[in-house]
Amino acid sequence: MISRIGHLFRLYFLQAWFSYRSLFAWSTPFSYMTSKFGFPFFSMLFFVFVGKFVGFLDPMFIVIGNILMMPTTNGLYGISMTIGNERQFGAMSYLLGSPAPRAPLFLGRAFFHILDGFATVLVALPIAMLIFNINFAGINLFLLACCLVLLSITTTGLGFIMGTISLLSRDGWMFTNTLGQLLYILIGVNIPVEKLPGFLQPLSGYLPMTRGIMATRLVLGGAGWSEVNALLAGELLVASVYIVFGYTLFRLVERASMSTGSLDSI
Amino acid sequence: MIGSFLRLGIRQMDVQLRMRVLSLWSLGLFFVQPAIFSAVGMLLARAAGNSSPDLIYTVLGAGIMGMWSGLVFTSTYDIRADRREGTLELIVGSPTPLRRVVGFRSLLNILAGSTSMFVAVSAALLIFDYSFTGINVAGVVISFALLLLGLWCMGIFLANLLAWSRLSGTFVDLLEMPVALLCGFMYPISVLPVWMQQISTVFPIRWGLEGLRASLKGSPIDTVLISKWLIALGISLVYYLLARWFDGKVHDHIRVTGELHSI
To answer: Which of B25, B177, B181 sits opposite A174 (nearest CB)?
Structure first.
């Protein structure tokens, strides 16, 4: 029994490490840095200036929102790539043919992305706070760290789903990209959720990160556990639903591919 | 001579259209991303209490963004795809110069990207009831032509840069948003800090775009507008010459090493 558990852990972490190294397609530290910080940083500045032009008087809202969205580079794009690239690189048939249990094989792809996403926002947020003179005093740093970890985890559910979709479609990356950009609107990154048109607000509630970003903003404003625990619990619940759905979808697609041999022929 | 040149152009653009441009990925670049960025601008305007968005910046700016994003990715991914598929050496080794192939491809990419602007203008007309009365039609046409020229020159410059060095791919990935940011695709340049405005002077898109916006607002063809056109033309020429220089470097490299894959 212990040996079996040890085997599963080994499989989980090895799978996590190798898939992170080989399938995220970052060949050099420079390309890593530009992928992680380039687009998010410049799009953040772009939205800040758009906001300034239209008279949106709270640029910090946009800055903080875009920084809190940074884990999506790992959780959404990274995981989607690590799953979808299996087929593109021709490894899918070997993976599906292996006797390894699927849960560590599939979910293991998230581990280093969660760490990486957390580290990214951990670096970017203090820098932004220093640049924009946000006072650290009064912020519950442990609670803030919990919020950031949770945000790094919750994005992975969408990554699992989009990764599985990219197994089904050659244009999966386009869908992932579109979803990633829709998040700029829907989860309270650039525009407060309560300021969205009425028909979009309920949609925000069903998406991961919405409550996590709200909670983190409150914590940055000095809120404590009691003020954010409902939001964090909601975030955790939504994330769990997405992760379970992503895993179930993968198993369904895998089962279908076994009977039709469809995955590698797409 | 002219006939064979045109035949090459038509065939090259036909292949480019089928292989690279008509894909969901390109359509996403041309239409989806600009629409989302435009929506962010509109919603920010709404959140700021504005009753309606500024159409020239928010909607037509999205069209420019589609043109630029489409160009920067399609023109540079073409070279990357050639390198990956092993056709880059064949193209370079063929009697047709690489710069001509790249030129036709970039031309098609620009024309395909223009559909983004067409959709943005249609949206402005049909959804937002934008009126084109009072615009300077000649100014708009000349500015838009200069904008296309600027984009084309930047496209061939980036493609040749990539052919010369694969490491520049990362740089190109990084270029999409900074150019949108510095050239003020969805806001006036004056919103930017002065040092950013100074950096943006090196992009012909900025000058073409300023001319286009001024003409859309009805500015007459005066010395200010003409000076913007001349600057756009001059900087475009600089990019074209740089592209030719990189093209020469690519051919020099091939003569020395005999291959392009390792660069």
So the answer is: B25
